[in-house]
Amino acid sequence: GQSLEQPSEVTAVEGAIVQINCTYQTSGFYGLSWYQQHDGGAPTFLSYNALDGLEETGRFSSFLSRSDSYGYLLLQELQMKDSASYFCAVGYRNNQAGTALIFGKGTTLSVSS
Amino acid sequence: ETGVTQTPRHLVMGMTNKKSLKCEQHLGHNAMYWYKQSAKKPLELMFVYSLEERVENNSVPSRFSPECPNSSHLFLHLHTLQPEDSALYLCASSQLDGGTEAFFGQGTRLTVV
To answer: Comparing B73 with B49, which gets the higher pLDDT?
Structure first.
Protein backbone atom coordinates (compact mmCIF):
# COMPACT_ATOMS: atom_id res chain seq x y z
CA GLY A 1 0.00 0.00 0.00
CA GLN A 2 0.87 3.66 -0.02
CA SER A 3 1.65 5.65 3.13
CA LEU A 4 3.21 8.95 4.14
CA GLU A 5 4.31 10.26 7.51
CA GLN A 6 4.79 13.87 8.52
CA PRO A 7 4.65 15.68 11.88
CA SER A 8 1.23 16.86 12.95
CA GLU A 9 2.26 20.27 14.28
CA VAL A 10 5.17 22.69 14.10
CA THR A 11 5.46 26.09 15.77
CA ALA A 12 7.90 28.88 15.00
CA VAL A 13 8.36 32.65 15.24
CA GLU A 14 8.44 35.23 12.52
CA GLY A 15 11.74 35.39 10.66
CA ALA A 16 12.72 31.86 11.65
CA ILE A 17 13.40 28.83 9.46
CA VAL A 18 11.35 25.67 9.76
CA GLN A 19 11.71 22.24 8.15
CA ILE A 20 8.80 19.85 7.68
CA ASN A 21 9.83 16.27 7.03
CA CYS A 22 8.00 13.61 5.07
CA THR A 23 8.73 9.92 4.76
CA TYR A 24 6.85 7.68 2.40
CA GLN A 25 6.31 4.11 1.33
CA THR A 26 4.92 3.58 -2.11
CA SER A 27 5.24 1.52 -5.25
CA GLY A 28 5.37 3.14 -8.65
CA PHE A 29 6.71 6.36 -7.13
CA TYR A 30 7.43 9.15 -9.58
CA GLY A 31 7.51 12.35 -7.54
CA LEU A 32 6.99 14.16 -4.25
CA SER A 33 5.17 17.45 -4.00
CA TRP A 34 4.07 19.88 -1.32
CA TYR A 35 0.81 21.74 -0.89
CA GLN A 36 -0.31 24.54 1.39
CA GLN A 37 -3.84 24.84 2.72
CA HIS A 38 -5.19 27.76 4.73
CA ASP A 39 -8.28 27.31 6.89
CA GLY A 40 -11.36 27.17 4.71
CA GLY A 41 -9.36 27.13 1.49
CA ALA A 42 -8.30 24.62 -1.12
CA PRO A 43 -4.82 23.07 -1.14
CA THR A 44 -2.46 24.98 -3.42
CA PHE A 45 0.66 23.57 -5.04
CA LEU A 46 4.03 24.72 -3.66
CA SER A 47 6.76 22.55 -5.15
CA TYR A 48 7.63 19.26 -6.82
CA ASN A 49 10.67 16.96 -6.76
CA ALA A 50 11.09 14.07 -9.17
CA LEU A 51 14.85 13.80 -8.80
CA ASP A 52 17.10 13.79 -5.74
CA GLY A 53 18.22 17.15 -4.51
CA LEU A 54 16.99 20.57 -3.58
CA GLU A 55 14.46 22.70 -5.47
CA GLU A 56 14.25 26.36 -4.46
CA THR A 57 11.29 28.64 -5.07
CA GLY A 58 11.64 31.94 -3.27
CA ARG A 59 11.41 31.46 0.48
CA PHE A 60 10.40 27.82 0.07
CA SER A 61 12.70 24.93 -0.81
CA SER A 62 11.96 21.24 -1.12
CA PHE A 63 14.33 18.31 -0.94
CA LEU A 64 14.04 14.68 -2.03
CA SER A 65 16.12 11.57 -1.39
CA ARG A 66 14.56 8.67 -3.26
CA SER A 67 16.96 6.12 -1.76
CA ASP A 68 15.79 7.14 1.72
CA SER A 69 12.12 7.63 0.71
CA TYR A 70 12.38 10.98 2.40
CA GLY A 71 11.80 14.60 1.63
CA TYR A 72 11.35 17.90 3.39
CA LEU A 73 9.93 21.35 2.88
CA LEU A 74 12.06 24.23 4.14
CA LEU A 75 10.41 27.55 4.84
CA GLN A 76 12.67 30.55 5.42
CA GLU A 77 12.02 34.06 6.73
CA LEU A 78 8.72 32.92 8.16
CA GLN A 79 5.80 35.31 8.03
CA MET A 80 2.49 35.24 9.88
CA LYS A 81 0.71 34.45 6.62
CA ASP A 82 2.67 31.17 6.41
CA SER A 83 0.48 29.80 9.21
CA ALA A 84 -1.36 26.99 7.43
CA SER A 85 -1.41 23.23 6.93
CA TYR A 86 1.29 21.74 4.72
CA PHE A 87 0.80 18.41 2.98
CA CYS A 88 3.35 16.24 1.28
CA ALA A 89 1.96 14.20 -1.59
CA VAL A 90 3.36 11.27 -3.49
CA GLY A 91 2.64 10.76 -7.14
CA TYR A 92 2.56 7.13 -8.18
CA ARG A 93 1.67 4.99 -11.14
CA ASN A 94 -0.95 2.37 -10.40
CA ASN A 95 -1.43 -1.03 -12.01
CA GLN A 96 -3.88 0.33 -14.53
CA ALA A 97 -1.30 2.68 -16.05
CA GLY A 98 -2.96 5.65 -14.48
CA THR A 99 -1.41 8.07 -12.05
CA ALA A 100 -2.68 9.35 -8.74
CA LEU A 101 -1.72 11.47 -5.79
CA ILE A 102 -1.85 10.38 -2.20
CA PHE A 103 -1.48 12.92 0.59
CA GLY A 104 0.02 12.85 4.06
CA LYS A 105 -2.04 13.87 7.09
CA GLY A 106 -0.70 17.39 6.98
CA THR A 107 1.44 19.48 9.28
CA THR A 108 -0.13 22.48 10.97
CA LEU A 109 2.38 25.34 11.08
CA SER A 110 1.74 28.13 13.56
CA VAL A 111 3.86 31.26 13.21
CA SER A 112 3.86 33.72 16.09
CA SER A 113 5.26 37.23 16.38
CA GLU B 1 -9.48 31.29 -9.18
CA THR B 2 -7.62 28.02 -9.70
CA GLY B 3 -9.30 26.91 -12.91
CA VAL B 4 -11.24 24.20 -11.06
CA THR B 5 -14.79 25.10 -10.08
CA GLN B 6 -16.95 23.11 -7.70
CA THR B 7 -20.64 23.49 -7.05
CA PRO B 8 -22.35 23.76 -4.71
CA ARG B 9 -19.99 25.23 -2.12
CA HIS B 10 -22.21 24.09 0.75
CA LEU B 11 -24.76 21.30 0.89
CA VAL B 12 -26.99 20.01 3.67
CA MET B 13 -28.85 16.82 2.91
CA GLY B 14 -30.89 14.23 4.71
CA MET B 15 -29.92 10.59 4.80
CA THR B 16 -32.64 9.66 2.31
CA ASN B 17 -31.84 12.39 -0.21
CA LYS B 18 -30.06 12.09 -3.54
CA LYS B 19 -27.76 14.90 -4.60
CA SER B 20 -24.81 15.45 -6.92
CA LEU B 21 -21.60 17.40 -6.62
CA LYS B 22 -20.19 18.96 -9.74
CA CYS B 23 -16.62 19.78 -10.73
CA GLU B 24 -15.45 21.55 -13.85
CA GLN B 25 -11.89 22.26 -14.91
CA HIS B 26 -10.77 24.72 -17.56
CA LEU B 27 -7.10 23.78 -17.59
CA GLY B 28 -7.05 21.17 -20.33
CA HIS B 29 -6.01 18.46 -17.88
CA ASN B 30 -6.66 14.79 -18.54
CA ALA B 31 -6.88 13.43 -14.98
CA MET B 32 -9.44 14.32 -12.34
CA TYR B 33 -9.80 13.31 -8.71
CA TRP B 34 -12.26 13.29 -5.86
CA TYR B 35 -10.84 13.66 -2.34
CA LYS B 36 -12.58 13.65 1.02
CA GLN B 37 -11.25 15.80 3.85
CA SER B 38 -12.68 15.17 7.31
CA ALA B 39 -11.70 17.02 10.46
CA LYS B 40 -8.44 15.74 11.94
CA LYS B 41 -7.94 13.31 9.05
CA PRO B 42 -5.72 13.35 5.97
CA LEU B 43 -6.94 14.00 2.49
CA GLU B 44 -8.46 10.68 1.41
CA LEU B 45 -8.35 9.76 -2.25
CA MET B 46 -11.77 8.50 -3.36
CA PHE B 47 -11.68 8.24 -7.14
CA VAL B 48 -9.29 8.92 -9.99
CA TYR B 49 -10.26 9.35 -13.62
CA SER B 50 -7.48 9.16 -16.16
CA LEU B 51 -8.41 10.00 -19.76
CA GLU B 52 -12.07 9.79 -18.68
CA GLU B 53 -11.71 6.22 -17.42
CA ARG B 54 -11.85 5.35 -13.76
CA VAL B 55 -8.48 3.94 -12.79
CA GLU B 56 -8.64 4.05 -9.02
CA ASN B 57 -11.36 3.45 -6.48
CA ASN B 58 -10.07 3.33 -2.94
CA SER B 59 -12.77 1.05 -1.54
CA VAL B 60 -15.33 3.82 -1.42
CA PRO B 61 -18.86 2.78 -0.35
CA SER B 62 -21.34 2.40 -3.19
CA ARG B 63 -23.44 5.26 -1.84
CA PHE B 64 -20.85 7.44 -3.61
CA SER B 65 -21.03 7.12 -7.38
CA PRO B 66 -18.68 9.10 -9.66
CA GLU B 67 -19.29 10.07 -13.25
CA CYS B 68 -16.87 11.59 -15.74
CA PRO B 69 -18.73 12.40 -18.98
CA ASN B 70 -15.74 14.21 -20.52
CA SER B 71 -12.30 15.42 -19.57
CA SER B 72 -13.60 18.73 -18.23
CA HIS B 73 -16.39 17.53 -15.96
CA LEU B 74 -16.60 15.27 -12.97
CA PHE B 75 -19.61 14.46 -10.81
CA LEU B 76 -20.08 12.72 -7.50
CA HIS B 77 -23.58 11.33 -7.05
CA LEU B 78 -24.66 10.86 -3.47
CA HIS B 79 -27.49 8.72 -2.08
CA THR B 80 -28.49 7.36 1.32
CA LEU B 81 -25.49 8.94 3.01
CA GLN B 82 -24.61 8.64 6.68
CA PRO B 83 -23.78 11.45 9.14
CA GLU B 84 -20.14 10.30 9.14
CA ASP B 85 -19.98 11.21 5.45
CA SER B 86 -20.14 14.87 6.43
CA ALA B 87 -16.86 16.38 5.22
CA LEU B 88 -15.23 18.68 2.70
CA TYR B 89 -15.21 17.07 -0.74
CA LEU B 90 -12.45 18.34 -2.98
CA CYS B 91 -12.07 17.93 -6.69
CA ALA B 92 -8.67 18.22 -8.35
CA SER B 93 -7.22 17.92 -11.82
CA SER B 94 -3.76 17.36 -13.21
CA GLN B 95 -1.96 16.51 -16.40
CA LEU B 96 -0.87 12.89 -16.67
CA ASP B 97 2.89 12.58 -16.49
CA GLY B 98 3.11 16.29 -15.88
CA GLY B 99 4.60 15.99 -12.46
CA THR B 100 2.50 15.99 -9.36
CA GLU B 101 1.04 19.48 -9.62
CA ALA B 102 -2.66 19.16 -9.01
CA PHE B 103 -5.09 22.04 -8.98
CA PHE B 104 -7.92 21.91 -6.47
CA GLY B 105 -11.36 23.39 -6.43
CA GLN B 106 -12.64 25.21 -3.35
CA GLY B 107 -14.55 22.13 -2.27
CA THR B 108 -18.11 21.34 -1.27
CA ARG B 109 -18.81 21.37 2.46
CA LEU B 110 -21.29 18.55 2.92
CA THR B 111 -23.39 18.06 6.03
CA VAL B 112 -25.56 14.96 6.33
CA VAL B 113 -28.37 15.27 8.86
So the answer is: B73
Q: Tell me how far apart the alpha carbons of residues B60 and B71 are, in angstroms, rounded to a whole number.
A: 22
Per DSSP, the three-state class of B1 is coil
Residues of A in contact with B48 (CB under 8 A): 94, 98-100
pLDDT band at B10 (very low <50, low <70, confident <90, very high): very high
Contacts of B20 (CB under 8 A, 6+ apart): B75, B76, B77, B78
pLDDT digits (tens, 9 = 90+) for B59-76: 899 999 999 999 899 999
Amino acid at A19: Q
Enumerate chain A positions whose Cβ falls within 8 A of a Cβ in B.
30-33, 35, 41-45, 48, 50, 87, 89-91, 94, 96-106
